[in-house]
Amino acid sequence: MNIPLIDLKAQYKSLEKDINKAVLEVLSSSEYIMGKQVKEFEEEFASCLKVRNAVSVANGTDALIIAMKALGIKEGDEVITTPFTFFSTAESISMVGAKPVFVNIDVNTFNIDCSKLINKITDKTKAILPVHLFGLPANMKEILSIAEDNGLYVIEDACQAIGAEYDGKKVGTLGDAACFSFFPTKNLSCAGDGGMIVTNKDDIADIARAIRAHGSGAYGKRAYNLMNDIHEELEVNNSESTVYNPTKYYN
Ligand SMILES: *Cc1c(COP(=O)(O)O)cnc(C)c1O
């Protein structure tokens, strides 16, 4: 007998009626990008994790790239991460122009070995990017303390760990920002690609909201101001539509 590791058809069958109804609702609304359902999902996601902001994006890789861009990580910077992860973790660091610096894993957890982490910090290090591999949280207590002592950001790659808890909190709420993937084989998957950035820092969230929409609209203006240290009172409405938005082409 052949038992597949992941059986997406069985999952679909068990929820077929609900899924079909939801898909038909999207089709009849014709809001295919950032529509009502996506906004509701962002809100439910944020409240489930108990985090201030959830910003949906196209996939987990975009979540990592946009989160790092929102934190200002760029060429010449170094980001410390684990080599034992899906390819995308280190790839994303390269994609923003930074250099992935690998720290080996702890053989008991398969997650980054914190005792080896400190030796890899240089004056170019900007962030630590731990991965909660196979749903097991990395040693966040140690990672957060090293980051705080050295003035580094922490970006959690939680693409395989939706719902996992650490010290009574959901993973993804512990660092400066965190990334999730809804690739069909992940713990929480979708019919296609999907991803989410979460953060308790509103400025990071607003820059991420701007980057995902080409810097257009009020979020684009606010992100520009934040990144250039310009202080200006701006009305930004979290329900700003990327579908019917008069400032959509003001980038
Ligand atoms: C899947 C995964 C990603 C990338 O997510 P995509 O949605 O496939 O782009 C990044 N990091 C880890 C640990 C993953 O498992």
Characterization of this structure:
With 251 residues, the protein is α/β, with parallel strands linked by helices. The chain contains 8 helices and 9 strands. The chain has helices at residues 8-14, 16-29, 36-49, 60-70, 88-95, 140-150, 202-212, 217-227, and strands spanning 53-57, 78-81, 99-102, 125-129, 153-157, 165-166, 169-170, 177-181, 195-199. The protein has a 7-stranded mixed β-sheet, sandwiched between helices. A hairpin with a 2-residue loop joins strand 6 (165-166) and strand 7 (169-170). It starts with 7 loop residues before the first helix and ends in a 24-residue tail after the last helix. 37% of the residues are buried. The mean pLDDT is 94. The structure holds pyridoxal-5'-phosphate.
**What compounds sit in this structure?**
pyridoxal-5'-phosphate
Q: What is the mean pLDDT? A: 94
Number of strand elements: 9
Q: Order of strands in the sheet with the most strands?
A: 1-9-8-5-4-2-3
